[in-house]
Amino acid sequence: MRFATLLMLMVSASWVLADEASIATGKKLYGQTCIACHGANGRGAIPGVADLTKRDGALAKSDDELMKNITKGLQNPGSMLAMPAKGGNPTLSDADVQALLVYLRSEFGS
Q: What does the alpha-carbon distance between residue 29 and residue 10 come to, in Å, rounded to a whole number?
């Protein structure tokens, strides 16, 4: 019984550390790739850029859809601006995009 409890605590702790690492990586990537358009507060630094803080905004989408939007780019209807693939940073890997999502949801998600 004690072993099972200890094992459960260890697994839980490793998930928390993984999330913290993803958040830190995502925050760094956001600062390097996304902040110029979305701003430090996530509300959009330029007209036509998605406000990441809106309850029914971009972060209301599923992770799969957001991964696709970030990876392939996105043109919102009615917006003159398009988000380029990988936010214009071709070096972003799928793991980087996943870390960005973890950060975005922790920082701007409602």
A: 28
Listed residue (35, 52, 27) closest to 87, CA to CA: 35
Q: What is the CATH number of the domain that holds 36?
A: 1.10.760.10
User: Residues 9-31: pLDDT tens digits?
Assistant: 444 444 444 588 999 999 999 99
> What's the domain range around 65?
2-108
Half-sphere exposure of 16 (CA within 13 A, CB side): 6
Q: Evaluate if residue 53 carries a pLDDT over 90.
A: yes
What one-letter code names the amino acid at 109? Answer: G
Overall pTM surpassing 0.90 (yes/no)? no
